[in-house]
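[User] At your convenience, examine this fold.
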Amino acid sequence: MDTKTMVQEKYGAAARQVRQTSEAACCNPAFTCCDPITGNLYDDAEKGSLPQGAVLASLGCGNPTALIDLKPGQTVLDLGSGGGIDVLLSAKRVGPTGKAYGLDMTDDMLALARENQRKAGVENVEFLKGEIEHIPLPDSSVDVVISNCVINLSSDKSRVLREAFRVLKPGGRFAVSDVVARGEVPEVVRKSMMLWVGCIAGALDENDYIAKLQAAGFNDISVEPTRIYDVEDARKFLTDAGVDVDAIAPLAKDKLMSAFVRATKPGGSCCGSNCCCN
């Protein structure tokens, strides 16, 4: 089974569980992207303003809406929007004159997100089906690109970053939460498909992340750690993948972190037929 199919199946199962039960998706033992990675990311006020389904289906590693100052009238795109929590929060911040897009490739997640949108009564939102490597939006159409623990799931991260650059307007901002590696990560972790789906094995080294953002055309790049996982964190996410935890967990110590990754598209760039140089 290839990576894309594995991701679709696991995230689809998580969405179906949220829709069918009142339990959080991460409580499914088959789904490994869970606490301590996904826990305690949103405050009570944020969670209280949203449908329960959007909160339960939050499977990210950060809170990208806390990354950046969104302004009324702006257009936001969430790459890999899942149950829609970050799209709905962004929509409230950009107001009725703004727009929030959510992009996801999983039908069950899109159905859940649209159900959450209906329950929240938010109109300035549109959920799109597609892959983050092929964003179905025009050049220079978005003010801000956000994402929450999804880019690391892609097998072609350079293309994702080029696509994010393409759809951003000149001066537009890239502000994502992601799992990032520091130093060499054991090969057995990278080869585990379960860990890949669980947001760990596909993590880029922070220097590689910066280099890929630069190659895509971004500047003002920063990687800000928000949580560095210790050996017991490693033990939790390695056990379910059938890895020899006692042998591997010490090697993974301090190598993986949740981080805020920020960058800017230069304001004077010519980026396509819909954009002019300033």
